[in-house]
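Lab meeting notes turned into a lecture example. A postdoc, R.K., suggested we walk through two folding results consecutively so the class can see how the record format repeats. The first protein's sequence and structure tokens come next.
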Amino acid sequence: LADAVLIETINHATHQIVRYCSIFIFLFGSIGNILNVFVLSQLPFRLNPCAVLFLFSSAVNFIAILSGLLSRMLSGWGADLTATNRFFCKLRGFLVNITRVVAIWYILFATIDRWLLSSRRLQRRQMSSLKNAQRAMIITLILSTLIFSHVIYCQEPNLVNTPQKCYGKTQACQFLTDISFTTLTILPLLLILIFGLMTIRNIRESRARISHIITQLGGNIRATNANQQRRLAKQDHYLLIMLLIQILILF
């Protein structure tokens, strides 16, 4: 009897945590992504590949929150349509898997873009372009859609003995979805860490070179050019800080 009471208490506590924590995460996650979209869609950032990647990453993250957390939040109040409706169940599973993976890969591309721009080699810096960023985003979206297309067939509502009522209907479906999602999230996280560290190293080397050049020139630099360089460097500095924060959050 004591064990039954304990289990019931744990289940009740878990239910309450899911109910209220999901609301908190939903509100703050939505507000944060909406603010990112608003700021990064401003004119000064529209031609910056890193800013564009962050913009679409925030937009995709917002879709992930709507498709994933909204149903989880409603489940705490017994109003989750994905648990009983076949169409919404399949749509949620499809969107959640794609958007979460795509958002991480977009952040990876932003990390690579910062690394390219911080490189000493001209060829690498020239690879940082809006066209390449757009190509990477489109290819990632297409590949993710193809990889998780099986979710449309696999996902079914009203299941029992599964973590959620809306889940993969067979063990093969569950394994394929889990292994695809795990691989496509762990791999970019590792690459983000690697390219982030290489970017920091390039920045340190660049600062050392700039200090040496300024010392040799003796300060004979035009004020207008200096102000322009300072403004661009400041913008890149903010984007780099934003990127590092994203990396810390992901890890």
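The second example is placed directly after the first for contrast:
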Amino acid sequence: MTMSVSPSLGGKDLGLKSTSLVGKTSSFSIMSEIKNFTVSCLDLETFLLARVKLRQEGFLDSNMKASLDFAIQTLEKFPISKRRDVSLTLEGDRQLVRFTAGNPVLLYMVRSGQKGPELHQKIPVGPRLIPSCLSESHFAGHCCRDELESCMNQARRVLSAEIESNPSCQSELELRIVCGELRMTYATQHPQRSLFVQPHRRVFFGKLLKLEKLLETKTHLERSGEMKEGLLACFQHLLINYSQFQEENIRVVIQSDGELMELVCGRNDYHSTQHYIFTDGQNRAYSHRVQDMELWEYE
């Protein structure tokens, strides 16, 4: 079956034009072309029509296909507010493809990372970067790794502290947030320095370490691909010895595979008992229990 793409098909405005990138350097090779799509919204129909056009013109190499498939899978989870007034740039082997929807205030780029395609989000903030630049709408659809203090609130706190110590820095900052699948950068027009916020995973269990939520956490980590061999050994150790962790106001710190995560019960600022679970070189799990002997009354 043969398909064609026209500007009026399905009510879409899929204008396609190419622009040559001018200039070369001796240290790297610049991609030869950018294919531009002007669209009303980044939705599934837009991407499917674009895929046909890219295949017809020979632009759908393996990297471009992987980037496009990843963009479809990722952006369909976004609310409509994050799919309009945005631009999306995809990285292929020898060219870029850019979608522009409306007047972009959010700039997306899909590029190859160590573990496959990654979506990077950039928000230009103008001449000054201040805490109010961080809008909840920018984080819509994101499930933060930290259930006690969101990455947005952590970023606001870090930025506020930096501005308080150096008020003149507001015009020269960029703020980078990495939280799970989220990679977001707030940037002034001419950034000179970077602030980084990268929360580790903290799961809040309420008063006690509940088995059901523990299994839900394990399931989430398995589905997201974060459950590596060492972390799995730690969870198995925790589940097998579950009765030893049935205390109020405890904090369980798990470390393995270069990652750190916390399971928190009770208060988030003080814990009468702390457990540390970790693995050795053969991914065998061990644990230590540290008891705070100070008197503490649970509220």
